[in-house]
Write a structure and sequence with these properties.
- The complex is a heterodimer of chains A (268) and B (251).
- Helices cover 82% and strands 0% of the residues of chain A.
- Chain A has 268 residues and is mainly alpha-helical.
- Chain A has one domain: ABC transporter involved in vitamin B12 uptake, BtuC.
- Chain A starts with a helix and ends with a helix.
- By secondary structure, chain B is α/β, with parallel strands linked by helices.
- Chain B has a domain of 138 residues: 3-Layer(aba) Sandwich (Rossmann fold), CATH 3.40.50.300.
- Chain B has a 6-stranded mixed sheet, sandwiched between helices.
- In chain B, α3 packs across α4.
- The longest helix of chain B is centred in the middle third of the chain and has 18 residues.
- The N and C termini of chain B lie far apart (39 Å).
- The chains are: A mainly alpha (268), B alpha/beta (251).
- Chains A and B meet through α6, α7 and α10 of A and β5 of B.
């Protein structure tokens, strides 16, 4: 018989995976992995401020992500520094300021490891509500923007010439990412969130011939990784968040091997 | 006269103090194929962006036909193999289209067999035709082709411009060809506009070919066309500014 906390962990993990799979495809297609990482790092600052002000952690991270997106677009208006420099600057200052601020939060018990590596086994019913309610909303927004986002990914000038609000789309995607980071933090933690976005999408790539197929396979691969990781960590007593990422990596290697074999069979 | 699709009047644009466009007049009408030619960095793409309303000019005015539908055919796509996308799917961006319409558009540009092909596996010429099919499918009033000759060999270029002419005849749209490669884009055009920050010359391909400022701008390549003509009404300084004539060093 499975324990309640395991079931809640599974439900939370799969809820996040169903959102992270399709969104992660865009991260892979648009080469935004570093942006996801930076958003996640700066989330710690949100958590720290949330603790000081006694805000709901998820809400605090959402605000931090929003501030990050606005700050990034603002800094991109100057032309002397490239975006990856700005991202590195924002990410690590966010992380550093967050750690400094946390040290001031005296009397507040802070489970830093829980934030950095996730604590999916400690998921409460209220977290599930956040993850599934918020996740459904975000998947809905992504689905509504799917075709315009794809067009803008193919060629921004073309999309713009044809009347697509390219800048708004880019901002919307950043926002979706920020909100996903907020929802996913409990499951794999700040340091590993990007892997939940890109590893299932990368595993799905050899198996897909259309964008939608890749998104669905990525969602499935992510869910499988969550189940495998939680199961593995239960049996072998390993940390759960990292175990989920290791399971996703195994799926990626499996799909790479399968596609290499298929190529060889076709060539023979 | 047929309907005017887009027009720029006395448009000037500067970037960080450098003038990209200087009092440029330009217009394109329905049913017309216009070639916009000029060297790299002559302000061609700036003019296109102004015409399409993506860039506000510092001075001058721009008018577009109401609800103008633009079909933009880029030089290349930003996509790599990480995005799996069949031609059939591309034709349904950004809105879903019935399969019969999509297949017909592909047939119209001569590549019906590419329906299932992955975009990242297409050759330059195939991709261009597929993008053209997509522009047709959207019912575009104005097709804008960016460097249409760059991705195809010479034989392919002739076929491509034949095709563009047929599309114009059948659909009655306006076509704007933007290129720094004059050999091909001039041939099939009704009108050529030669740009180097200002409009150097404009008219039929033959008239422009004989224009001294054209020969000045394109130097060797114009001579290779047998179009070189040795009279100047103005010279070009290195910045592309029009320099006063009769300094005795030109030519």
């Amino acid at each position: 018989m499975l324990d309640d906390f395991l079931l809640r962990a599974l439900a939370a993990g799969i809820g996040v995976a169903l959102l992270a799979g399709p969104l992660g495809c865009f991260v892979v297609w648009r080469r935004m992995a570093y942006l996801g990482d930076s958003l996640a790092h700066s989330a710690l600052l949100g958590i720290a401020i949330g603790l000081l002000l006694d805000l709901e952690a998820t809400l605090a991270i959402v605000f931090a992500g929003l501030a990050f997106a606005v700050l990034l677009v603002g800094l991109q208006q100057q032309r002397q520094l490239a975006t990856d420099t700005l991202l590195g600057l924002l990410a690590h200052s966010g992380l550093a300021i967050g750690l400094v601020v946390l040290s001031f939060a005296e009397g507040v018990r802070v489970d830093l490891m829980g934030y950095l590596f996730g604590d999916v086994l400690a998921v409460r019913s209220r977290d599930l509500l956040w993850i599934w309610g918020g996740g459904a909303l975000l998947v809905g927004v992504l689905a509504a923007l799917w075709r315009p986002l794809l067009l803008a990914t193919l060629q921004e000038d073309m999309a713009r010439a044809e009347g697509q609000p390219v800048l708004a789309l880019r901002f919307a995607l950043t926002l979706l990412l920020a909100l996903t980071v907020a929802l996913a933090m409990k499951v794999v933690g700040i340091l590993l969130i990007t892997s939940l976005l890109i590893v299932p999408a990368a595993a799905a790539r050899p198996l897909a011939r259309t964008p939608v197929a890749m998104a669905l396979i990525a969602a499935a691969a992510g869910s499988l990784s969550v189940a495998g990781g939680i199961g593995g960590s239960y049996l072998a007593d390993t940390p759960t968040g990292p175990s989920i990422v290791v399971a996703a990596l195994l799926l990626f290697l499996l799909s790479q091997a399968a596609s290499a074999l298929a190529r060889r069979a076709r060539a023979a | 006269m047929s309907e005017r699709l887009a027009e720029a009047r006395q448009v000037s644009v500067s970037f960080a103090g450098r003038e990209a466009l200087k009092a440029v007049d330009f217009s394109i009408r329905r049913g017309e194929i216009v070639s916009l030619i000029g060297p790299n960095g002559s302000g061609k793409s700036t003019l296109v962006r102004v015409l399409l309303g993506l860039l506000r000019p510092d001075r001058g005015s721009v008018a577009r036909a109401p609800d103008l539908k633009v079909g933009y055919v880029p030089q290349r796509l930003a996509l790599d193999a990480s995005l799996p996308l069949p031609v059939a799917g591309l034709l349904s961006l950004p809105t879903r289209r019935p399969e019969a319409e999509r297949r017909q558009a592909l047939a119209e540009v001569g590549v019906p067999h590419l329906w299932d092909a992955q975009i990242h596996e297409l050759s330059g010429g195939e991709l261009q035709r597929v993008m053209l099919a997509r522009a047709i499918l959207r019912g575009s009033d104005l097709l804008v082709l960016d460097e249409p000759a760059s991705a195809v060999d010479v034989a392919g270029q002739a076929a491509l411009f034949d095709l563009i002419g047929r599309v114009r005849d059948r659909r009655g749209c306006g076509v704007l060809l933007v290129s720094h490669n004059l050999h091909v884009v001039m041939a099939g055009a009704d009108r050529v506009v030669c740009l180097n920050h200002h409009v150097c010359c404009t008219g039929s391909p033959e008239a422009v070919g004989l224009d001294p400022s054209f020969a000045e701008l394109f130097g060797g390549s114009a001579r290779a066309l047998g179009l070189y003509h040795h009279h100047h009404d103005h010279d070009h300084a290195l910045s592309g500014e029009t320099a006063p004539p009769a300094t005795g060093t030109g030519g």
